[in-house]
Amino acid sequence: MATRVGVVVFPGTNCEMDVVHAVEVLGGSADLVWHGDRSVAGHDAIVVPGGFAHGDYLRTGAIARFSPVMEAVRAFADEGGPVVGICNGFQVLTEAHLLPGALQKNAGLKFRCATVTCRVEHDRSALTHGVAPGTELALPINHFEGNFTCDAETLARIRANDQVVLRYVDNPNGSVDDIAGVSNEAGNVVGLMPHPERAAEAILGSADGAVLLRALLTAARTRV
Could you confirm whether 195 is annotated as catalytic? Predict the structure, then answer.
């Protein structure tokens, strides 16, 4: 049976079908989970995709964190289920306190849309399971508020706990410590600003995103 991925949709989400397509291309199955739903039962992994949840009118992800589905996502994560937030989804997970830190406006206050090189820092997360540390991946970014920030104490903690999952080789947005993606301490919840679903097939210019999404499907089956 194919690994089943739930893709959360908020008003303003716009990358949900990209994730569905990428998961299906890699042999998984995916369906949409509405933000008003109160259960994610039956899913092996959850992805919170990119977009503009609730228009980002207050602060990116700040309203989305109160959607009913987020309680179910939290319970799923607490049970060890793999949860990945991509771009706006990363912002939602930090606002929901499922991940440390926060995302602020890019350095220079400029929107960034480019393919960047990211380095895998460790293989002990749901998104990098089985991927050799040091692997470099070409992944697209598309954000204005992708500058990861945290206080010195938090940075020291996430470094000590190996929670930095991905780093930019050439930092495009000012993120502290070149951080492109982080996990919770258990490694089953991961947020990243680059879009692996937009690089899941060579026809898109890079298939490097498939490395991460395939790792997620594997982690979902083995509950890393």
Answer: yes
pLDDT for the residue numbered 57? 77
Which is the catalytic residue, given 16, 121, 145, 197? 197
pLDDT of the residue at 83: 98
pTM beyond 0.85: yes
CATH code of 161's domain = 3.40.50.880
Residue 64: CB atoms within 10 Å: 29
- Residue 97 gets the label, from left (phi > 0), alpha (psi -120 to 50) or beta, of left
User: In this prediction, what percent of the chain has a pLDDT beyond 70?
Assistant: 100
Q: Is residue 35 among the annotated active site residues?
A: no
User: Which residue among the candidates 15, 87, 118, 150 is catalytic per the annotation?
Assistant: 87
For residues 81 and 208, what is the distance between their CA atoms, to the nearest angstrom? 24
* Polymer length of the chain: 224
Measured at the CA of 209, the angle between CA 72 and CA 135, to 5 degrees, comes to 110
Region 40-48: mean pLDDT is 97
Structural domains in the chain (count)? 1
